[in-house]
Amino acid sequence: MLTDTAVIVERNLLTVKRIPTLLVSATIQPLMFVFLFAYVFGATFGGGSYREFLMAGIFTQTVVFNAAFTTVGLANDMSEGIIDRLRSLPMSRLGVIAGRVSSDMLLGVIGLGVMVACGLAIGWRVRGSALDAAIAFGVILLFALAMAWVGAVTGLAAPNVEVAQSIGFLWMFPVTFLSSAFISAQSLPGFLRPIAEWNPVTAVATACRQKFGNASPPDFPPPTGWVADHAVGYSIGCSLAILAICIPLSLILYRRSTN
Questions:
Q1: Of 75, 117, 143, 154, which one has the fewest beta carbons inside 10 Å?
Q2: pTM
Q3: Are the C-beta atoms of residues 254 and 93 closer than 8 Å to each other?
Q4: Which of 72, 92, 237, 86 lies closest to 152 in space, CA to CA?
């Protein structure tokens, strides 16, 4: 399976080499969100303190949105018959999907590196220890892996590329923005508040802020509740649960789509 995964990774990276705009898409969009929130909305939310609060949310949003590459990539392979060709070869089914996920994870790591450089440029700093920073990035990458497998399930379930793109945005935007990625979950009204508090995106952003040592702006209510108190553990648990569901589900969808 590892050999098959490596073959698919190499094939997908060659595609990026030949179509470099794919890599541009993985980095430009998060940069736009950084400047939009940091300098358009940030002046109202707290200026420099908000920019430091913002970056953990941007990191989390970046890895969620990167799932779209897996979704569209798999849907495109299905529609162009590449999956049928791979099925005719003695290749591991899991290796075909894991190859797509792994290559998109590499693009995600590049995008995350660009975001870190951008954050440092606008004033974001890691105020915790090196070990805490490593834990924070580990939490983000594990969540990125889980989101990539969600993207794989979406891409395999969609009948074509257009529907795959639509389904991807249908879940990405509410999951990302109904959270504390950019605001305090405590400021949300009614039933939206508990949804945001238990959203894994909120947990990952909160865990990263805690480990990076990035405090909330003075006007933001501090995060409270069980999830805030156990943000790292809850983030890891959610990522592992998503992987436990999505990996076998993607294999079922792959088998069904090629029958």
A1: 117
A2: 0.90
A3: yes
A4: 72
